[in-house]
Design a protein that fits this description.
- This is Leukotriene A(4) hydrolase.
- It is an enzyme of class 3 (hydrolase).
- It is found in: Cell membrane; Cytoplasm.
- It catalyses: leukotriene A4 + H2O = leukotriene B4.
- Its cofactor is Zn(2+).
- The two termini are about 20 Å apart.
- Helix 2 crosses helix 4, helix 7 crosses helix 8 and helix 14 runs parallel beside helix 16.
- Among the domains are: about 190 residues, tricorn interacting facor f3 domain (Immunoglobulin-like, Sandwich), CATH 2.60.40.1730; about 90 residues, Zincin-like; about 150 residues, Neutral Protease, domain 2 (Orthogonal Bundle).
- The chain is globular, with a radius of gyration of 24 Å.
- Strands 5-4-8-2-1-11-14-13 form an 8-stranded mixed sheet, with no helix packed on it. It has a 5-stranded mixed sheet with strand order 16-17-18-20-19, covered by helices on one side.
- Helices cover about 35% and strands about 25% of the residues.
- It contains 20 helices and 22 strands.
- The protein is an alpha+beta fold and about 600 residues long.
- The structure holds ligand LTRB2CHR and zinc ion (ZN).
- Zinc ion (ZN) binds next to helix 4.
Amino acid sequence: MPRLGTDPSSYSQPDLVKIKHIDLDWTVDFSQKIISGSAQIQFIILTKFIEEILLDVSDITIDSVNVLNEGCEIPLKFDISGLVPDIGSKLTITLPTKTDGKLTLKIYYKTSSSASALQWLTPEQTLGKKHPFMFSQCQAIHARSILPCQDSPSVKFTYNATLRHSPELTGLMSAIRQGSENGVTKYVQKVPIPSYLLAIAVGDLYSKKIGPRSHVWAEKDIVDEAAEEYSDTEKFLKTAEDICGPYLWQQYDLLVMPPSFPFGGMENPSLTFITPTTIAGDKSLVDVVAHEISHSWTGNLVTNANFEHFWLNEGFTVFVEQKIIGRLRGDEYRDFHALHGLSDLKDTIKNQLKNEPELTKLVVDLSNVGPDDAFSSVPYMKGSTFLRYLEDLFGGPGIFEPFLRSYLDQFKYQSILTKDFKKYLYDYFKDKIPEKLEQVDWDKWLYSEGMPLVIPNYDTKVYDTCKKHADLWASQPTSAIKTSSIIKEKLTSIQKIELLSELLDKPEIVDLTAEKVDLLTETYEMSRNVTKNSEIRFRLMRLVIKARLERFDEIFEFANSNFRMKFVRPIYRDLAGWDVGKPLAIENFKKVRDEMMKVCAYAVAKDLGIEN
Ligand SMILES: CC/C=C\C/C=C\C[C@@H](O)/C=C/C=C/C=C\[C@@H](O)CCCC(=O)O
Ligand SMILES: [Zn+2]
């Protein structure tokens, strides 16, 4: 895609004209798997005049584009061109005259049944088996498949929506629900959002109150279990407010997604989408909720202006998430979380990105690569490590947290680049600690490849226990482990996760036999009958593959139980590197690919090295 403006992944020209508000009128048609209706879009023109407007579209059929003039709709000429595979096309709307000031267009259109932002599930694919389910995932650039828009996070707009669907179903959006009657639900989002935060889900959904401003929504069979698992939500919200300032989105609800949801969570405003793989039964995986709540400031209020600066969203969010953990569980757990993140980062750099080292930079170049292809744990972990480095260098949380609040307040409702963060940091600290500012090697932190430039001096107490256990399993034969006193020591779920990560990272494990894997599974209660913890099961399956144990039923049972990319992609990648596993992985993938969301099927095909 030609780089037209500040956003390499969008055709739109936000320097000339910007969307301010959108009124959506959508009908959700499960029989055709489409959304049809209209988008009435208010623009503000930022230059002397314009003669055309460029919007992003993907796989959308436009019936008409009209300009609103004194209550009348006047049809305009439009053209769709410049298709870039997996990115989208350019909708050029020709205005009748040179136009300045403001402008409202109404576009009548329908989506395609293969819109990349949407997944449509048949009743059989749901828990309840009676009703269909559909949901969206717009980040990074899939909003353009459900709405002609400036699909760039540099543009923020408010929106109202009228949603029409079968009255038996519940429609939810990333906005405040105004009420529902006979299958018509109205929504209002008064806080300006980037297009990637537009979200919709329609299904047989029930809700349960879990806090003064929170409900959990889910299919009936899991709503009670989910309410129990996520009952710390208000505690997380209050702690996040203590760190970041007041919560400005009024409501914070959670929607438990079907297992095919490709991510852990998605920070859709007022309604986080969350994978059911975080329901372990003992709250051991609910840090994802703390993460999504943190996005209510970092990402949703202060937003990266394009996805090359994604670390401004995710690095800050992990940084705040870790602060929440520190406040609620103690600083040693904040540091353990960071150390565990670094293990994941090491794995990402060594495996996922081994042939694309340029994507291990904190700020990446997306001129020739789509955001989905560039996605990894790098912006999360390298970004949060950078912020922790700055915090430690500048004198600790007492000094850095007031800056963080001030930064969030300064840039709320805006979209920014790394240079804006850097300038604000300098303005804030230049008279206070100029000598510390000089010590920061910005060039290396932002643009060098590989692991973070500096690893902060973390408290390693919790982590050391995991390492001790991992070293034992890696260096000793099974017979010696059986009699070791170390294995009598109990580990928490997150320590077990880290123990497995450490083992997966070992270049060599002595005596990696079925007997050893079984002993490990039994010792730490990791079998599928005993634990529901998906992070443990995921890593154990990777260890089974590393041991070259031909337990394909168990491996594919896990790989087909959910299509969260964090889990399925490394498993398929590992299998692709094993001559016995690869053909079976391809066969299994071909069987289940239609149940995956498009973005997941695309990524796994790439991991397996086969045609998409
Ligand atoms: C440098 C990378 C550039 C752009 C990437 C931006 C978006 C990529 C796209 O694939 C969407 C990502 C959405 C992520 C949503 C939630 C994550 O925080 C989940 C993390 C993984 C997990 O826990 O499952
Ligand atoms: Zn995030």
